Write a sequence for this structure.
């Protein structure tokens, strides 16, 4: 009898200890998640950054070195010993301290015109190897908005739909940094039936992939393909189909702008009831301190476009010493996006 009672007591103690263990584990996981949720999402921008147990530089344990592009959660910012420090969380669970100069995070820019990056699968490997690499680029170059290629309709005769192979990497980077972003889609519709198909494609893509920070209007990419595009034979009337696509997406509650090059916009698309994002590359070695309509490019005097243009892609190869990466960069009017 005593032996049976002893066994029961042992079992009860094991149960109580198990419950206590899981309760404590749950509590610390909840506190840890609360810290992450209320933190600023930062990125390591220095090389081999010391991560300390305390906000000291002498006689203090160094937990490890942080790598450039590594994601961290900033819990606090303060000054100690004449040094600016961040208290951060690494790997989602380890708290420690780093010099603030080695960590950066997305800060809203208040300029009238802000820098915008648009990216696709073609920037992977050539420009960026990971979401972390892209995050460092965004922070170092003070990029305010991002456009991510969703996919489009092929410009060959079949006109099959395709998805960008790396859109999810860019979404991950923007969602982590809380940078406002949107998608762009390449249109090649030839008739109303194909417009309906494109509406469904765009609607489904947004439904399946848009995160909390996907707040920019969809950019409809309408371009010439040197006579090889399936829609290159209908430019005189193409604006009607593009307007139909804009109107049908509007009925679905999807805001849009149109991306195209300056010459095409001037010759064929300025009648559209939309806002324009114009591509024109007069001088690709620096960030311009002027606007597209200050250039002498043919069409820069088009008053219809002047009233409707909110974005200018001024380079497809970076901007010299200002932006060394080989990619598209634009200026956009911030008031429109507000």
């Amino acid at each position: 009898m005593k032996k049976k009672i002893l066994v029961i007591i042992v079992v009860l103690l094991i149960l109580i200890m198990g419950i206590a263990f899981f309760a404590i584990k749950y509590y610390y996981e909840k506190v840890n998640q609360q810290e992450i949720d209320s933190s600023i999402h930062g990125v390591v921008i220095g090389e081999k950054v010391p991560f300390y147990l305390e906000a000291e530089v002498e006689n203090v344990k160094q937990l490890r070195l942080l790598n450039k592009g590594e994601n961290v959660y900033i819990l606090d910012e303060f000054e100690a010993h004449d040094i600016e420090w961040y208290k951060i969380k690494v790997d989602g669970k380890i708290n420690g301290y780093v010099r603030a100069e080695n960590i950066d995070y997305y800060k809203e820019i208040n300029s009238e015109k802000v820098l915008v990056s648009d990216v696709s699968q073609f920037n992977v490997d050539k420009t960026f190897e990971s979401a972390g690499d892209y995050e460092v680029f965004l922070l170092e170059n003070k990029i305010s908005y991002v456009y991510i290629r969703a996919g489009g309709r092929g410009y060959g005769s079949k006109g099959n739909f395709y998805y960008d192979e790396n859109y999810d990497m860019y979404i991950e980077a923007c969602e982590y940094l809380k940078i406002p972003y949107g998608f762009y889609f390449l249109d090649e519709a030839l008739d109303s039936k194909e417009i309906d198909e494109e509406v469904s494609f765009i609607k489904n893509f947004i439904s399946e992939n848009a995160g909390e920070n996907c707040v920019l209007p969809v950019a409809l990419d309408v371009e010439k393909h040197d006579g090889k595009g399936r829609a290159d034979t209908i430019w005189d009337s193409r604006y009607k189909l593009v307007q139909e696509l804009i109107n049908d997406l509007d009925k679905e509650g999807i805001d849009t702008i149109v991306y195209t090059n300056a010459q095409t916009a001037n010759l064929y698309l300025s009648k559209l009831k939309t806002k324009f994002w114009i591509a024109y590359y007069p001088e690709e070695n620096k960030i311009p301190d002027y606007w597209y309509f200050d250039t002498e490019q043919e069409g820069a005097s088009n008053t219809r476009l002047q009233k409707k243009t909110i974005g200018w892609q001024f380079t497809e190869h970076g901007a010299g010493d200002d932006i060394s990466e080989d990619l598209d960069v634009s200026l956009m009017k911030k008031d429109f996006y507000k």
About this structure: The chain has a mean pLDDT of 91.
